[in-house]
Design goal:
By secondary structure, the protein is an alpha+beta fold. It contains 9 helices and 11 strands. Helices cover 40% and strands 17% of the residues. It has a 6-stranded antiparallel sheet with strand order 1-2-11-10-7-8. The chain has a 5-stranded antiparallel sheet with strand order 3-4-5-6-9, with helices on one face. Strand 3 and strand 4 form a beta hairpin. Helix 3 packs antiparallel against helix 4. It is elongated, with a radius of gyration of 33 Å. The termini are far apart.
């Protein structure tokens, strides 16, 4: 399951391609030598040997490329001697050409390895920054299990305009999931500002309405600090969720975001927002007020928060992805496997796979632990059995 903050190991196909690339120079040498040795002298194949050092520059280091070039020169000399021809000038000319190609290939290999090293260093720095912006979520917060799917649309990127956070606060859990307008680094910048505002006030905000106000205020302040940034000009849809420990409910506030789905068994119900708020950073366009919805969310229930990268994926006919229908069909699937199942299904459903950032967070309230039956006896403090008393002696009557 793709997840932010984690490096994806090279797949089997990538390893196969790399190993094939390293073997190609030797394959060229073997095939060329065999073709030249077992065909009439008028058929000349040794000119193809120049491909060996050129191919080596793609995957081999500088010493390896030079070594393959020298081996190519030896093979060329042996093929020439096998024909019992004069050493000069044809062999000398061929060896000079191979030496020049080997030198050029070694230079290309050096440039490639330098760029690869720079890319590794930049990637390492980017992964550290990414873990600060989008931290990996824990599998469990209090009574709630969390299962995340996160895929950035940009090639080789692990972070996009979708963002998420879940924090344990006194008495429960608060969650934010959102989607910034547009793509690219500007959307990432806006997402980082909203995440910072959420983390700064999530523990102290009295309710979700106050928390939503701090998101607007955070973007406004950021625009004042950095007027040239377009982060303050972008808007974002956000859904905020509060899950109290002592009540089987969920409180939600939507700022123009797609409605989460609550699943109880095979029944899937979108959360009905009677009066959703405006997206974050659009509150100044009209009088904005926040209305918090409260829905039942008991033990064993599942809630799926998602961005429009999920719901607006289209097939070849232009039909939107049927998320509710799919979720009903996955009622018996294990909670931990649902994000991976959703990812595979979305990729297969989309015309060109996934062409937008995708974030989906499955929240599950774990069932209450089974309480042992109360022991027989006189109950003591906090429901515990008290010590048994011996029977009082019977006093004789006077």
């Amino acid at each position: 399951m793709p997840e932010a903050g984690h490096r994806r190991p090279p797949g089997k196909a990538e390893r196969t391609q790399f190993n094939l690339g390293r073997a190609l120079p030797f394959l060229v040498l073997a095939v060329t030598a065999a073709a030249d040795a077992f065909t009439p002298d008028r058929e000349r194949f040794e000119r193809l040997l120049v491909a060996a050092p050129a191919l080596a520059a793609v995957t081999w280091s500088v010493p390896g490329t030079i070594g393959i070039g020298l081996l190519t020169m030896v093979v060329r000399a042996l093929l020439h001697l096998g024909r019992d021809e004069a050493l000069v000038p044809e062999l000398l000319a061929s060896e000079v050409v191979l030496a020049c190609v080997t030198a050029a290939s070694a230079w290309v290999s050096r440039v490639r390895t330098r760029y690869e090293q720079d890319l590794r260093e930049v990637t390492a720095v980017a992964e550290v920054v990414q873990r600060v912006v989008l931290r990996p979520l824990p599998d469990r917060l209090g009574r709630f299990d969390l299962h995340l799917l996160y895929v950035a649309a940009a090639a080789k990127a692990r972070i996009g305009g979708d963002f998420y956070e879940a924090v344990r606060v006194p008495g429960g859990v608060r969650i934010m999931l959102g989607d910034v307008q547009g793509k690219g680094l500007g959307a990432v910048e806006t997402a980082s500002v909203l995440l910072g505002a959420f983390r700064a006030t999530v523990n102290t905000a009295p309710d979700l309405a106050a928390l939503a106000d701090t998101l607007d205020e955070g973007l406004t302040r950021y625009g004042g600090w950095d007027p040239e940034s377009d982060a303050a000009e972008r808007f974002a849809t956000v859904v905020l969720v509060e899950l109290p420990d002592d009540q089987d409910i969920a409180r939600l506030l939507s700022c123009g975001h797609p409605a989460p789905l609550v699943q109880r068994g095979a029944e899937v119900t979108p959360v009905a927002f009677a009066d959703p708020s405006l997206p974050v950073n659009l509150a100044g366009l009209a009088e904005n007020h926040h209305r918090i919805e409260e829905v039942p969310f008991g033990p064993g229930d599942r809630m799926l928060l998602y961005t429009d990268g999920v719901s607006e994926t289209r097939d070849r006919a232009g039909t939107f992805y049927p998320l509710e229908l799919r979720l009903r069909g996955w009622a018996r699937e294990p909670d931990a496997e649902l994000p991976a199942i959703l990812h595979r299904d979305l990729t297969a459903y989309g015309v060109d796979g996934l062409d937008d950032d995708v974030a989906a967070l499955l929240v599950v309230r774990r069932p209450e632990p089974v309480r042992p039956p109360e022991p027989v006896g006189q109950p003591g403090p906090v429901g515990r059995p008290g010590p048994s008393r011996p029977p009082e002696p019977v006093r004789p009557s006077s």
